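User: I'm writing a tutorial on reading structure tokens. Could you give me a worked example: one chain, its sequence, then its tokens, then a sentence or two explaining what the tokens reveal?
Assistant: Sure. Here is the example chain.
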Amino acid sequence: MGSGNHIIPPGYIRFEPFWINKIRQRLSSPLNRVGYDIYIQKRIQDFLGILSPYQILAVSQKIYSLASNPRPEDARHKKNTVNKCYVPETNTGFSISYEIIEGAVYIKAIIPDQNGEGNHKEIPGVYHVKRNTTTNEWEETRLSGYEVKTPFAALNGQSNVLKDARDLMAEHVKYAYDKNLSEYTLFHNPSDGGVWDTYESSQDKQGKTTGVSKEFSKVLNSVQVKGAPVKWVAHSQGGVIFTEAVRHHVVQGGGSLNSNSVWFHAGANNKKKTGRYLPLAGVEVLGYNDHPFDFVPQIIGRHATNVSNIVGSVLHAGYVFMGAAERSPHTLPYQGMGNYVEQMPGPYQATYNGAKALENKIDKGYEYVQNIPSRLKVAFKLFKK
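And here are its predicted structure tokens:
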């Protein structure tokens, strides 16, 4: 069992999940360590930092469980060894490699399980996406660093596994820049499902920079170092990540990022915050392409400027969060109201009628308030009589 008196080897630090520190802050006496001491290499701790909030929580819980049970039933030993083990974290698709030495657990590696089911093992990364001229399908290649090799690039939003993000963002880049697009660069923002993606987005909105935003900040800086201009499309949550990545770069004392420019498509980012930080880094905003009835930019991003935006977004929320892509005002690039009226005439007419009715009520209320002094004068004259 751990004594707490180990000499920490070079390159390792004591592993303490974030919630343990929070508990310590609330106790008057130090929290007693129970079980084996756990040490983790600094580079692995840094790797944990780029994962999503859900992945960090799940993997950290699995690691910390080794303190009380370093040889769980699902652990496997490396060949011809007793103390060198690896254990899967099934909810995220990562495997944890570790060694037990003199009452302590040393975390050696955290790696994606290529045989794991689902897409939870995906981590943020840069991909070169190219159209296969034979099959006409989009194909991606993971790049090892942060370099962007194409003039156009994209950052996807929530609930997009890699294959979906690859195909969807190709449509957004085509609409924004080049209808004959043959290749582009994708910075993939992985998904852990709607609830966790929304939580991750809320953290960035509050300025609590998430791992994906820190990684994307490095990509923007890499573009600047290379010097070749890159035009981005940031979709949905991607707008929040783009803004927070620039803010993080600025507050860390970073220089200009003026080799980057961006179109926000249905972005959940707040325009005021975006307008405050992007100019500080020299990033040009090429525009906002928002469907007027899209709940994400209009309500969450607070882009709404009139009653119609608000009413339409509320009435169409179901199409955003549960509808098919071709029926959603959010998923595909917005190509004008004429296209939308043709695509969904019933919902459009319902929204138009609802907005007009509400506007009429507001106008009547405003007229009534404006006439209150006149009404008081008439009442006073009647009272005198």
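What the tokens reveal: Residues 19-33 have pLDDT under 50 and may be disordered. Residues 12-112 form a domain with the YaeB-like fold fold (CATH 3.30.2310.20).
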